[in-house]
UniProtKB/TrEMBL annotation, chain A:
Gene Ontology CC annotations of this record: peroxisome
Ranges where the Acyl-CoA oxidase/dehydrogenase middle domain occurs: 185-293
Catalytic activity: a 2,3-saturated acyl-CoA + O2 = a (2E)-enoyl-CoA + H2O2
BP terms from Gene Ontology: fatty acid beta-oxidation using acyl-CoA oxidase; lipid homeostasis
Keyword Oxidoreductase: yes
Protein name as it appears in the record: Acyl-coenzyme A oxidase
Keyword Manganese recorded: no
Cofactors required: FAD
Top-level division of the source organism's lineage: Eukaryota
Pfam families attached to this UniProt entry: ACOX (PF01756), ACOX_C_alpha1 (PF22924), Acyl-CoA_dh_M (PF02770)
Residue stretches making up the Acyl-CoA oxidase C-alpha1 domain: 332-482
Automatic annotation (TrEMBL), chain B:
Pfam families reported in the protein's UniProt record: ECH_2
Record bears the keyword Hydrolase: yes
Function: Hydrolyzes 3-hydroxyisobutyryl-CoA (HIBYL-CoA), a saline catabolite. Has high activity toward isobutyryl-CoA. Could be an isobutyryl-CoA dehydrogenase that functions in valine catabolism.
Catalysis performed (reactions): 3-hydroxy-2-methylpropanoyl-CoA + H2O = 3-hydroxy-2-methylpropanoate + CoA + H(+)
Species this protein is from: Arabidopsis suecica
Biological process per Gene Ontology, one example term: L-valine catabolic process
Pathway where this protein functions: Amino-acid degradation; L-valine degradation
One example GO MF annotation: 3-hydroxyisobutyryl-CoA hydrolase activity
Domain Enoyl-CoA hydratase/isomerase: 15-349
Entry keyword set: Hydrolase
E.C. code: 3.1.2.4
InterPro entries, A to Z: ECH_dom, HIBYL-CoA-H
PANTHER family attached to this UniProt entry: 3-HYDROXYISOBUTYRYL-COA HYDROLASE, MITOCHONDRIAL, 3-HYDROXYISOBUTYRYL-COA HYDROLASE-RELATED
Record-given protein name: 3-hydroxyisobutyryl-CoA hydrolase
Length: 675, 378
């Protein structure tokens, strides 16, 4: 007996050490009792043309997108790997920070050599801009680090040179930037000042004799912080700094400074330190910069808005410093546009993975000895994922609309772009984070495996909620802008025009007291609720601020005190703007299955937004009964969207290789033979 | 009856050996052969006594392509829908092979072109020999690499698939093995012995078949001037976004270091149908992101547009110049690449509208888990 046990133990130990194959045949379980992977495509059918839907969702440059997807799949630089008989490309997030930074740079060189960035700064017009945005989006679907590193170089550094600079800067830098002869970064944020750019402490003075600017970091809180590209690769930077001329502070201005030579050595009078390891985005080399009496030529002031003459006179076509600052910041909108759209693509990746998994993974039987139930056949699982899917659709149209108004921008649309991009950036990035968290939980433990992506993406995309403007600050700006619009229209007794506020010129919509299913799904009803909410909150907000001002508080302080209404209003405005974009997309479609399913998706978006917003009850736009009706309808819509779930995520157009193993044959991907 | 003698069937215990038997036409696949193959493959899949299917060709070709002249005849007589039936069955056969639940061994001892690749490359094992000549020559014929080529070409290393698919370059057995189109290389003198050994296999487990094949495997050297050694140049040039950019990238390479291979490559592209080149490139690029079924459905749309000829009649012209009049001087329309606009290319990928009873290719679901294990992993 004890001999036997010792022998068996020895076998067990030997097996651990030798990793031998399991005992064969006679011990193996029969196929019938083993779980098998069944691809969702076998059991689900497409109720509409997914290619057509993909074209709608991507909106533009579908062929260019497919081209760059292919570029990444065909190169060994993108960490191709096989799992469960399929090829995947996704970064190795287990690499060290330094390795991730180097491979990210190599990937960018590869894309450069293949002509991906051709014309990104030297070509102009909506077509060139849209192509650039599409290619950047696909970079971000592969890896957020790639798109951020590319984005900093082209959209921050490159666009700053293009928009803040003049001919002399364009000639010297744009082509070189496009070819990566110079690698740019963008030093705006400081340790002590982030979203509040006006408060930055870096100081630049002018030396008339040498005709040079002198840049200084006067204190530790003035060190430039989070500067993407600064830690390892960038050769040049845009420096944002207060400009002191003859003792007068002319406000924030942008300069070009070289920080490294061509061999990568840090220049004199510059100190650079690393920001260190981050919760994600470790392929981006964020650094900190101190300037110690750094001298740069007078020509390096980006002088589109203001200039300093060689004898040290400050000249600007815009006299008001506030307006001057606004003119400076206007081109930065591009950052918020790209962030908003990349957030939605990240949500798409998460949902495509989680929904595909929920169409192939089963858990628990409803009847004794019955088959286990597919995750997505649980109403509760539908309720978790399908409303997020509908929101992602609506926001996908919103992101497309934002891109369209951005690429067709004129000086007149600047204000609208600022407001809409602020609201969309905040709401879309928050939505991405909520979606990823829900997707990660919806796939259970598999979600914590890095290679399955949904969990990892949370860390990779988290920063989106605070960079390029903190989401909360942006939402307050939306409310403030609406306030200003309201006050100005009332004061001048003029009708509302722009920002989608025209509905304020009509009488207050009256909602029916009884909400039937068909009422709830009616686009007019949905529009009415969203308008009513926006209008009422705007009126409440302005009157509350006026009241506070009446009590002697300053306007700014009154805004701060009204933060709860400001938050509700910002959300109401943004959600209504999003609803409008999906309504428009739907209206443009000819009758047919695509239009029908868009109608379902739009109703789900509208109703889930209502269900989730307590302000409807708080301010009595809907009764307690109404809210119950909305809730029931959401549940009904879940059931109606369920058959379309696979087709809806397939329409995202994200190639299989850019999803993850649990989206496909997760049994084979985990088989012993693959160990 | 004729169709049966065009596909010879040998029963060797649990193995079926199918021989394409139209040697004078280099085993070009006609409608009857395709129907017969489809019928046989489906029957063998259901028959538990069949474990393995071997496919080979009579004479000096495995299969030189599809039997295109009758299709062109149909088109000329305004009956392209008959041609559509031909392609529908052929693509269905390709799909069945790509998702087959039993191993298929194709012995490629000779010419393998176009449709010949379609009935072999999708299968699990492809045996090349010193006699193998492989090519996808469709762009020179006014067609595009179909039969699921947008699936298997796009899965070759780097941009080798674009190179092979656009230029119609010929590969020998060693090159096929190197790039993955072939899974094994066996000297033709060993084929009889190999076949005899394969006939003893009593299981559909591909690892057993593999073991037998491994015993006969020969490791050929790539010829010194093999295009496969030029993979870096191929990647640099054929990764470009458009056909025009591919050609100018090749021309840039040629000015830096002119050699025969680059000049031949450029010449091949310039001789091919501009519309074919553009739709082929798009097809391979889309195919890279799609499953084999989606690829075939798309290719079916494309081939219907090609036959319908609303945008270009290059297939008829190409066949005239290459197969019928043999003057090798096709007059392509559109004549120049830049005349073939993106929106024209787009139309080849749309459904064929305003055509009565036209439907997308319908592939019945292949409810078979073993298929994913046995079908080729390209």
């Amino acid at each position: 007996m004890s001999d036997n046990r010792a022998l068996r133990r020895a076998h067990v130990l030997a097996n651990h050490i030798l990793q031998s194959t399991p005992p064969s045949s006679n011990l193996s379980l029969t196929r019938e009792v083993c779980l098998q992977y069944s691809p969702p495509e076998l059991n689900e059918s497409y109720g509409f043309d997914v290619k057509e839907m993909r074209k709608l969702l991507d909106g533009h440059n579908v062929v260019d997108r497919d081209w760059i997807y292919g570029l990444m799949m065909q190169s060994n630089l993108f960490n191709r790997k096989e799992r469960g008989g399929k090829i995947f490309v996704s970064p190795d997030y287990n690499q060290t920070m330094e390795q991730q930074r180097e491979i990210t740079m190599k990937r960018i060189w590869y894309l450069l050599e293949n002509g991906v960035f051709k014309g990104w700064l030297t070509e102009t017009g909506p077509e060139a801009e849209l192509r650039k945005l599409a290619l950047l989006e696909v970079c971000g679907i592969y890896d957020h680090s790639v798109s951020i590193k590319v984005g900093v170089h082209f959209f921050l550094w490159g666009n700053a040179v293009k928009f803040f600079g003049t001919k002399r800067h364009h000639e010297k830098w744009l082509k070189n930037t496009e070819d990566y002869v110079v690698k740019g970064c963008f030093a705006m944020t400081e340790l002590g000042h982030g979203s509040n750019v006006r408060g930055i402490e870096t100081v630049t003075t002018y030396d008339t004799r040498a005709e040079e600017f002198v840049i200084n970091t006067p204190c530790e809180s003035a060190q430039k912080y989070w500067i993407g590209g600064a830690a390892n690769h960038a050769t040049h930077t845009i420096v944002f700094s207060q400009l002191h001329i003859n003792g007068t502070n002319q406000g924030v201005h942008a300069f070009i400074a070289q920080i490294r030579d061509q061999d990568g050595n840090i220049c004199p009078n510059i100190r650079i330190a690393d920001c260190g390891h981050k919760i994600g985005l470790n392929g981006v080399d964020n650094g900190r910069i101190w300037f110690d009496n750094l001298r740069i030529p007078r020509e390096n002031l980006l002088n589109a808005v203001a200039d300093v003459s060689s004898d040290g006179k400050y000249v600007s076509s815009i006299k008001d410093p506030d307006q001057r600052f606004g003119a400076f910041m206007a081109p930065l909108t591009s950052g918020r546009v790209t962030i908003a759209s990349s957030a939605i693509y990240s949500a798409k990746v998460g949902l495509a993975i989680a929904i595909r998994y929920s169409l192939s993974r089963r858990a628990f039987s409803v009847t004794a000895n019955g088959p286990e139930v597919l995750l997505l056949d649980y109403p509760s699982h539908q309720r978790r994922l399908l409303p997020l899917l509908a929101k992602t659709y609506a926001m996908s149209f919103a992101a497309n609309e934002l891109k369209m108004i951005y690429v067709k921008r004129t000086p007149e649309t600047n204000k609208a772009i600022h407001v809409v991009s602020s609201g969309f950036k905040a709401v879309l990035t928050w939505h991405n984070m909520h979606t990823l968290q829900e997707c990660r939980e919806a796939v259970g433990g598999q979600g914590v495996k890095t290679e399955n992506l949904v969990g990892q993406l949370k860390g990779e995309f988290d920063v989106q909620t605070t960079f390029e403007g903190d989401n909360n600050v942006l939402m307050q700006q939306v409310s403030k802008a609406l306030f200003a619009e309201y006050v100005s229209c009332k004061k001048r007794n003029k009708p509302f025009k722009g920002l989608g506020l025209e509905h304020m010129n009509s009488p207050r919509p009256v909602l029916p007291t009884q909400l039937t299913s068909s009422t709830l799904r009616c686009s007019q009803f949905q529009t009415n609720v969203f308008c009513l909410r926006e209008r009422d909150l705007l009126e409440r907000f302005t009157s509350e601020v006026a009241q506070l001002q009446g009590r002697g508080e300053s306007r700014e302080f009154s805004f701060l005190l009204s933060h709860q209404l400001a938050e509700d209003l910002g959300k109401a405005f943004t959600e209504k703007a999003i609803l409008q974009t999906i309504l428009d997309a739907e209206a443009k479609r000819p009758a047919g299955s695509v239009k029908d399913v868009l109608g379902l998706v739009r109703s789900m978006y509208a109703l889930i937004s209502l269900e989730e917003d307590p302000s409807l009850l708080r301010y009595g736009y809907l009764s307690q009964d109404n809210v119950g009706d909305v809730r029931r309808e959401v549940s009904k819509l879940c059931g109606e969207l369920r058959p379309h779930a696979l087709a809806l995520v397939t329409s995202f157009g994200i190639p299989d290789a850019f999803l993850s193993p649990i989206a496909f044959n997760w049994v084979e991907a985990n088989a012993w033979s693959s160990v | 009856m004729a169709s049966q003698s065009q596909v010879l069937v040998e029963v060797k215990s649990s193995v079926r050996i199918l021989t394409l038997n139209r040697p004078k036409q280099l085993n070009a696949l006609c409608f009857n052969m395709i129907s017969r193959l489809l019928q046989l493959f489906l029957a063998y899949e259901k028959d538990p006594s069949v474990k393995l299917v071997i496919l080979k060709g009579q004479g000096r070709a495995f299969c030189a392509g599809g039997d295109v002249p009758p299709v062109v005849n149909n088109i000329v007589q305004g009956k392209w829908r008959l041609g559509a039936d031909f392609f529908r069955d052929q693509y269905t056969l390709n799909y069945v092979m790509a998702t087959y639940s039993k191993p298929q061994v194709s012995i490629l001892n000779g010419i393998v072109m176009g449709a010949g690749a379609g009935v072999s490359i999708h299968g699990r094992f492809r045996i090349a020999t010193e006699n193998t000549v492989f090519a996808m020559p469709e762009t020179a014929l006014g067609l595009f690499p179909d039969v699921g080529a947008s699936y298997f070409l796009s899965r070759l290393p780097g941009y080798f698939g674009e190179y092979v698919g656009l230029t119609g370059a010929r590969l020998d057995g060693a090159e096929m093995l190197a790039c993955g189109l072939a899974t094994h290389f066996v000297l033709s003198s060993s084929l009889d012995a190999l076949e005899a050994d394969l006939c003893k296999v009593g299981t559909s487990d591909p690892s057993f078949v593999s073991t037998i094949l491994d015993a006969y495997t020969h490791h050929p050297y790539l010829k010194q001037k093999s295009a496969y050694y030029r993979l870096d140049v191929i990647d640099r040039c054929f990764s470009r976004r458009t056909v025009e950019e591919i050609i100018s990238a090749l021309e840039r390479e040629a000015t830096q270091e002119p050699d025969d291979w680059i000049l031949t490559t450029i010449r091949a592209l310039k001789k091919s149908s501009p519309s074919s080149l553009k739709i082929s490139l798009r097809s391979i690029r889309e195919g890279r992101l799609q499953g084999v079924g989606q690829c075939l459905i798309r290719e079916y749309r494309m081939v219907c547009h090609v036959m319908k000829g609303d945008l270009s009649k290059d297939l008829v012209e190409g066949c005239r110049a290459i197969l019928i009049d043999k003057d090798r001087n096709p007059k392509w329309k559109p004549k120049r690449l830049e005349d073939m606009k993106d929106n024209m290319v787009d139309q080849y990928f749309e459904r064929v509208e305003e055509e009565e009873r036209w439907e997308d290719l319908k592939l019945s679901p292949r409810n078979n888990l073993r298929a994913s294990k046995i079908a080729a992993k390209l």
